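ok so I'm stuck.
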Amino acid sequence: MIRFARLASSLAIITLLGLAPSAQALEEEVVLGLSQDRVAITADFDGSEILIFGAVKRETPIPKGPPLQVIVAVSGPSSPVTVRRKEKKLGIWVNADSVIVDSAPSFYAIATSAPFQEVISDTEDLRYRVSITRAIRSVGAAMNIENAQDFADAVVRIREDEGLYSLRENTVAVDQQTLFRSAIDMPSDLTEGQYTARIFLTRSGQVVSSFETDIDVRKVGLERFLYSMSREQPFLYGLMSLAIAVVAGWGASAAFRLLRQ
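replied:
not stuck anymore, here's the structure
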């Protein structure tokens, strides 16, 4: 009887320490697949589409209650961005205040299985930094700058217009709360580097599981050769560009002379 009481006491302590819920957290896990984990940027590259598909691994039957929702977020390399505000002075638009946004992804696309506000709560969004505005990190601006948040909002607005930032609601298909799939369109002007794909499973706005993997985006072939030369041997790159311009100009002139004759 004493031994049983000690065992019960030990189990109670484990539960209070938060060790027991780990089994519950693993009831639903993401098993992910990508149509490609490497994107090659060539001279005629005009964009790419990545199919993201997966399944939900369970040790128990599907939980009752609200249906499972899925969020897919793909982000490109992040870097600081300097944003300047223009003001009209004496009839001329000039740069006024400027703020350095500490970190902004070069590309960010979100796909959800339902409207974003229904898929994830504001608290979970703040925790995992899923939404576009929270994926941008801006620590602060100078005290004399008014409406500093407008500068971060400007980055989002400009990159949305360029097709680099997007929120695509209701574009993740979920079958029987087990299989899911979505396609992410990547534009032609991609920044080279490591891209991160994050998948979140949610119920009632709470994240129950997440998974992360990388997508390698690199220039190859002639594009890689020219890019490397421009960075490593700028003098030779300049001479080659000048020679190509001279040859192209001479060729066009010769073609026009033949047409006139």
